[in-house]
Amino acid sequence: MKRRKKDKTVKRKKESATVKEKVARMLEIPEEIVSDRPKITTVGRKEVFIENYRGIIEFTNEIVRINSNYGIITITGKNMKIREITNEDIIITGDIDNIDYVV
Amino acid sequence: MFLIRLWHYFKGYVIIIVSGFSVEKFINICTRRQILLWDIERLSPTEVTMKMSIRGFKNARSAARKSRCRVRIKEKKGLPYIIWKYKRRKGFVIGLVAFAVLIYLMTSIIWSIEITGNYNINTDVLMEQLNGMGIFRGATKRSIDPKYVADTLMLKNRELAWTGVEIKGTKLLITVREGIEPPVVIPVEQPCNVVAKRDGIIISIMAKNGLTLVKEGDTVKKGQVLISGVLESIHPEFGSKQVHAMGEVLARTWYEAEKEVPVKKINRIKTGLEWNKYSVYFLDFRIRLPSGNNPFELYETGIVDKAPVIGNRFKLPFGLIIEKHYELKEEEQVLDQEQARELAHKMAMDKILEMVPKEAEIVDQQMQVITAEGREYIQVTVECTENIAIQKEIGGN
Q: Which residue among B38, B130, B182, B282 is least crowded, i.e. fewest CB within 10 A of its CB?
């Protein structure tokens, strides 16, 4: 079991700064508030938070695929559950092996 | 996390099982409609279980139709469901309310009154004064103002030096302290004599002020001036000077008592028969239970209070009172001389001890048998040493 978190190099949408983001950067507002880019936070191997997602595509115990503006985020592992899901964020728990971006 | 769970519990939620081929779609539609979902778990390729708030569940119906999923409730959880369940049990709710009200009422009245610290004042007297103020067992706590009660008791009883009134739970504790009444003192500026309190023979005389008129060994009578406050000058033309005489006069005094020697003694013996009178009480209300009439002519009573007790000390304010009547019979006992004399002596001594003042010291005691008119008497004489000095105003009675 190897663990890796791929850098956000593969993108569906060209990730260039929009006017909105430029203004936000100038005013020193955290970018994730204004941008539609997903923010993924992992806590140990048990929890993954994803903010700014668009919807879930697939959900089983072994794989969760989540749609975002910049590609599909695929999380693989075992005994995975969605602890909480709202319009803005999703919390996935379980024994997580992989977090991937798929175009 | 715990707080969120508690919040969900208060708001109420349902555990549902969603089955279909596009459960993900159902979840997406729900989230888009601002329905909070949590603890989503896949059970089988076509079934998913999740938790959802009650409000959300109402909106989820159409989402299920849209995503062609079947939704069924596995379990309803939370406070709203419990309340809904108990809403129909009216008796239960009434009982709950009645319980709360009863507890409140029961704890807002005085169940017992305890008076401590009184030696000379009778407890019943104090209790009666309390009753006069509207304080009795069963009175509401709110109507009692401890300060007012303490002040009133102090004003009504001059003997009290201090009074503490405290409401402890359902108990009214009244603690009093009795003061010693100050002796009648003649002011120092006023001239006075020292006179004898009672008859006796002077042992010693010590004048702190004034002129001693008697000396050791003198026999004095009650009221006789021992230390004079009038000082005569050796030169009669200067007249006399009056002073405040003071002093201590120790004297030997006698106390005497006589008792007839009894020939026989009447003993009262329990026959062993007993008859009980029962009554139940609640606070100060007492109800006699029918138990017939007292069959005995000569009897002795004892009261047994059977109240349930919680712990060692807390007596509940209701219970059963049993008045036990024991039948007695009189038996005459002929006493022999020795026994009879001893009895008479004891009775005489008791009588003397009542007369002897506390501060006097008993030095000697004598017993004498007197025979007169065919009867025997025991005469007991007690010799004491005591201070017989007492101040008295000059010219007063």
A: B182
